[in-house]
């Protein structure tokens, strides 16, 4: 399998490139628009053909590359069925399997960070978007986020995966690259409480500033990364 973890310094976003073999089909998870040329160059260098680009949710801290990659490669663009983005070509639902040239990713509906957040489970690893981070969790205070739904998604869905399952998040702000379900159960400080109410109390008192690009990124991402037309 070909696997690459790519990092956007401006937004601390991880993008993942996956393919089953050299010369085969590839997909990108959570691509950043400013890095489109880098993705296309890497795909070419690895002798791959990009056929699918996926966003785990509508991002508020960067503009997605879904539209730019679609225009450059004619790949299909995917998001969960709850997404309000009107430009995606395919939508998946909870439990659905995305199949690509020998790869299989199972879509897991994991709301909480937003109301349309998904994780993607593949063999020994899970791409958790912004729901579960390494030693942290995604904020729940905008885009219809809900701390109790976040707790349910993490504890009752992700934490039921085998403890050896590798956790690849959508962001990291401390330089961590990968964790595991077992590690996060034991060492994630926000998840050492016993109830959803206790977790909600933590999340509701974070008092974080809005992402700097939120007013630009969210409207653009509902259009697959295309800005609103000028009046």
> Any idea what the CATH architecture is?
4-Layer Sandwich
- Topology as H/E string? EEEHEHEEEEEEEEHEEHHH
Strand order of the largest sheet: 1-2-3-4-5-6
CATH 4th-level superfamily:
Ribonuclease Z/Hydroxyacylglutathione hydrolase-like
How many separate domains? 1
Provide a count of the helices.
Answer: 6
For this structure, what is the CATH class? Alpha Beta
Class from helix and strand fractions: alpha/beta
Q: Level of helix content? A: 10-25%
Mean pLDDT: 93
Instruction: Please name the CATH topology.
Output: Metallo-beta-lactamase, Chain A
Number of strands: 14
Given the C-alpha coordinates, what overall shape results?
Answer: globular
Main sheet record: 6 strands, mixed
- Taking pLDDT < 50 over at least 5 consecutive residues as the criterion, the unreliable ranges are none
Could you characterize what this model shows?
The protein is an alpha/beta fold and 231 residues long. The chain has a single domain (2-208), classed as Ribonuclease Z/Hydroxyacylglutathione hydrolase-like (Metallo-beta-lactamase, Chain A). It is built from six helices and 14 strands. It has a six-stranded mixed β-sheet with strand order 1-2-3-4-5-6. The protein has a six-stranded mixed β-sheet with strand order 7-8-9-10-13-14. Helix 3 packs across helix 5.
């Amino acid at each position: 399998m070909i696997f690459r973890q790519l990092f956007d310094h401006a937004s601390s976003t991880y993008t993942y490139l996956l393919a089953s073999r050299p010369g085969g089909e590839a997909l990108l998870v959570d691509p950043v628009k400013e890095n489109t040329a880098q993705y296309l160059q890497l795909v070419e260098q690895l002798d791959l053909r990009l056929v699918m680009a996926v966003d785990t949710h509508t991002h508020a801290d960067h503009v997605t590359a879904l539209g730019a990659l679609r225009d450059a490669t004619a790949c299909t663009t995917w998001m969960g069925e709850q997404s309000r983005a009107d430009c995606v070509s395919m939508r998946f639902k909870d439990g659905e399997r995305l199949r690509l040239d020998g790869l299989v990713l199972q879509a897991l509906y994991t709301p909480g960070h937003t109301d349309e957040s998904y994780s993607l489970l593949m063999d020994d690893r899970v791409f958790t978007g912004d729901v579960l981070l390494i030693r942290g969790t995604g904020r729940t205070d905008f885009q219809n986020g809900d701390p109790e739904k976040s707790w349910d998604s993490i504890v009752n869905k992700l934490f039921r995966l085998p403890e050896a399952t590798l956790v690849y998040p959508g962001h990291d702000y401390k330089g961590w690259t990968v964790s595991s379900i077992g590690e996060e159960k034991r060492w994630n400080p926000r998840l050492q409480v016993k109830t959803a109410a206790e977790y909600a109390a933590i999340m509701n008192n974070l008092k974080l500033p809005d992402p700097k690009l939120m007013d630009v990124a969210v409207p653009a991402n509902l259009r697959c990364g295309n800005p609103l037309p000028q009046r």
